[in-house]
User: Which sequence fits this backbone?
């Protein structure tokens, strides 16, 4: 995840679609988030850049909808249903995820392993070509 | 002489051909566009192309006419005086264009109703050089139209005329309620107000407003193809000359075309502010240099010092030796050459035979005279000539020669950040099946042929304005993604210096120093970790195994788990041990906060792997404790007070269950 202030953000992202689960009166997704513009980024154990104030997945409930959809702990959420999550407060993020009239949330998440995998594969590709 | 003219001719021809090709491409693009923004941009390029073509054609005509005149005039007297002095050229830069608007206060504070939007841009023309600024969308929420572009014209003479033209095009959708909130939609669709009704009528009758700008007063030398799509109209213009140049922001008057009835009308205040600066060559370049002897009258009147003099701008800089100038050492001294300076060639110095030049300046109240001598008459003549030329240039460029004005060379396009309004991201979709379309950009409208798509790709990639997300649907598509990214990188390499490399390319460069690179110690990573003891069951052990999945990473290459921690996190985790926190770790296998500190033998950059996972919350996060049930919501009562306290504690790193 490269983050240069003032420049557009670039990331390799994965699309994750989570169908909310109804539990009585609540619709839940089955994961927890941490981070936000109003939070202390230094305490985020998942972020590579300790000034990153993005929203991260801090845990994924086992057997829950998020886990089924492929969300992993440590993922950084970039978008929720098209809404940006890189510059939001913690509460705004929570609200965007827990809208009552939405059954499905489509997330764009990024994680280091994804980036590494693509980079690794590109480098391998390069190496092959050079040979 | 003829050769030179022919070269010039062919240059212009090439330029004309280039612009004609651009125009054809733009017309095709315009015809294929579906989105309003793209159409507006394309129409803007079209207008610029047309303007350029016309300018080149008129220049070509002028050159041909001059050629003919030259051939006709055989007698030397007709050819004009040969010793006419020509002033030096210079760079003219215009930047920070700002055009204030003057909305009626009722309009400005109105919150309802459709937003009358116009797309505007400026065309700047100096001699044969034509540039356009970026397009800006203007509506009544703006008080000024600002153009961030800085444009530098090279090779401008002091008699230049810089023409600034403002074009605008109404960008409202058909007056349906496409963008208005639903509540107003019904109101709007049922009735149109008086002003909007006028506008609708005006837009429907193309002849009602001032005619479409087709290139200005010059007779049309080429038929301009009539293309569908948005048309820009000239809204205002002005001309700037040397007299308008200052090193700071100044306001100039605008002449406005059109009136309120036109669809493209904007209430302009009537002036344009900008910074117009110039750097004449005489101020920036070395106009003359050579060895000189200087007699300083202050001391021994008969002493001559050998120096190497360089005439640049308003100074004659004297170095001890020529090498000093190249080495940029401190000069011996500097003589001012400005409008107040008087330079005379004295006939003969009684003691030497050569001519000498005397330079007089007023420093403070005193008059100081330096006397220069050269080695030969020819040199003296050349120096005098250089001084005369310098004075002439200064008289032509006037205030530009008082001081060197700063001109910033605009760097290759800096991508502007995406605003929330635009929100059009390009997604590269990697579809599971290897269809040829999976390689192209997927725009919202699928009915675009591959050729146009390629045009759009190159057009928009150069601008680089948007955030770039490459989306992977499943881990299997890594290869396809890699291919796409590789192709992009190659394209950028081929195109060379056309623009700064997009930032995402840095993601994929090999950076051996990267902290989280998992290249080398890959095999080692896994081994030491396995023999770690499992977390000892503690008071909150109910969740030690279950909640967090212990699943392995997907089958992508065996990298180290990302070591994403800083020392802070590790410290806070060690602190957090007392609170228990979460035991389950997806990332660090088996080692929990309660286990021993990480082994020093780990070859990966060993910031604690153990301390991952939410121990950051020094308060002991509230949510995990509550999941005795599979999907717990916040348990009211006992938990809520703790929740509240946790939320209010500024040190805590909040986590919320969703």
Assistant:
């Amino acid at each position: 995840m490269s983050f240069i202030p003032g420049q557009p953000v670039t990331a390799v992202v994965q699309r994750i679609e989570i169908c909310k689960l109804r539990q009585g009166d609540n619709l839940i997704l089955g994961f927890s988030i941490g981070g936000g513009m109003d939070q202390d980024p230094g305490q985020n154990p998942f972020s590579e850049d300790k000034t990153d104030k993005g929203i991260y997945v801090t845990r994924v409930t086992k057997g829950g909808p998020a886990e089924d959809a492929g969300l992993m702990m440590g993922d950084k959420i970039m978008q929720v249903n098209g809404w940006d999550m890189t510059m939001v407060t913690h509460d705004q993020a929570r609200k965007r995820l827990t809208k009552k009239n939405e059954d499905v949330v489509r997330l764009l998440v990024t994680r280091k392993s994804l980036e590494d995998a693509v980079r690794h594969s590109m480098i391998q590709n390069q190496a092959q070509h050079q040979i | 002489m003829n050769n030179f003219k022919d070269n010039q001719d062919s240059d212009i021809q090439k330029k004309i051909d280039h612009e004609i090709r651009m125009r054809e491409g733009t017309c095709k693009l315009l015809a294929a566009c579906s989105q309003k923004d793209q159409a507006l941009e394309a129409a803007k390029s079209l207008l610029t192309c047309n303007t350029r073509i016309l300018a080149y054609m008129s220049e070509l005509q002028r050159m041909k006419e001059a050629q003919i005149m030259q051939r006709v005039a055989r007698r030397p007297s007709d050819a004009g005086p040969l010793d006419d002095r020509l002033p030096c050229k210079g760079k003219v830069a215009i930047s920070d264009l700002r055009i204030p608007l003057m909305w009626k206060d009722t309009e400005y504070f109105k919150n309802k109703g459709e937003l009358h939007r116009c797309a505007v841009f400026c065309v700047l023309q100096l001699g044969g050089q034509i540039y356009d600024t970026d397009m800006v969308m203007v509506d009544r929420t703006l008080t000024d139209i600002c153009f961030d572009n800085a444009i530098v014209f090279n090779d401008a003479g002091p008699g230049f005329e810089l023409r600034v033209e403002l074009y605008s095009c109404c960008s409202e959708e058909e007056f349906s309620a496409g963008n208005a909130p639903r509540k107003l939609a019904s109101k709007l669709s049922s009735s149109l107000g008086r002003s909007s009704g006028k506008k609708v009528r005006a837009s429907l009758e193309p002849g009602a407003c001032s005619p479409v700008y087709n290139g200005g007063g010059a007779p049309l030398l080429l038929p301009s193809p009539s293309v569908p799509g948005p048309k820009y109209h000239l809204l205002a213009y002005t001309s700037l000359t040397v007299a308008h140049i200052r090193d700071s922001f100044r306001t100039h008057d605008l002449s406005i075309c059109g009136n309120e009835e036109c669809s493209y009308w904007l209430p302009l205040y009537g002036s344009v502010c900008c910074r117009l600066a110039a750097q004449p060559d005489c101020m920036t370049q070395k106009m003359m240099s050579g060895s000189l002897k200087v007699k300083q009258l202050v001391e021994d009147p008969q002493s001559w010092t050998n120096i190497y003099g360089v005439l640049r701008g308003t100074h004659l800089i004297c170095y001890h030796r020529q090498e000093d100038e190249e080495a940029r050492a401190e000069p011996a001294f500097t003589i001012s050459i400005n409008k107040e300076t008087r330079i005379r060639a004295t006939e003969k110095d009684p003691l030497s035979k050569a001519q000498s030049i005397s330079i007089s300046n007023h420093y403070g109240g005193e008059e100081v005279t330096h006397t220069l001598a050269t080695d030969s008459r020819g040199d003296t003549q050349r120096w005098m000539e250089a001084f005369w030329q310098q004075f002439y240039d200064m008289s032509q460029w006037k205030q530009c020669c008082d001081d060197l004005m700063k001109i910033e060379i605009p760097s290759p396009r800096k991508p502007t950040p995406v605003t929330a309004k635009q929100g059009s991201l390009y997604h590269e979709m990697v579809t599971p099946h290897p269809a040829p379309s999976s390689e192209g950009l997927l725009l919202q409208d699928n009915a675009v042929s591959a050729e146009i798509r390629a045009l759009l790709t190159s057009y928009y990639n150069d601008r680089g304005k948007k955030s770039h997300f490459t989306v992977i649907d499943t881990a299997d598509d890594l290869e396809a993604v890699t291919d796409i990214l590789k192709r992009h990188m190659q394209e950028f390499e081929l195109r060379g210096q056309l623009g700064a490399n997009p930032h995402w390319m840095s993601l994929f460069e090999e950076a051996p120093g990267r902290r989280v690179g998992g290249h080398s110690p890959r095999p080692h990573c896994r081994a030491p970790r396995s023999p770690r003891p499992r977390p000892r069951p503690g008071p909150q052990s109910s969740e030690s195994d279950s909640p967090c999945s212990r699943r392995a990473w997907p089958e992508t290459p065996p990298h180290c788990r990302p070591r994403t921690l800083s020392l802070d996190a590790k410290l806070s985790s060690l602190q957090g041990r007392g609170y228990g926190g979460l035991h389950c770790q997806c990332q660090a296998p088996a080692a929990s906060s309660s286990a021993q500190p990480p082994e020093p033998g780990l070859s990966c950059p060993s910031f604690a792997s153990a301390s991952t996972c939410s121990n950051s919350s020094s308060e002991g996060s509230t949510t995990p404790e509550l999941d005795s049930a599979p999907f717990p919501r916040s348990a009211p009562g006992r938990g809520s007070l703790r929740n509240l306290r946790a939320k209010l504690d500024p040190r805590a790193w909040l986590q919320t269950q969703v």
In short: The first helix of chain A runs from residue 65 to 69.
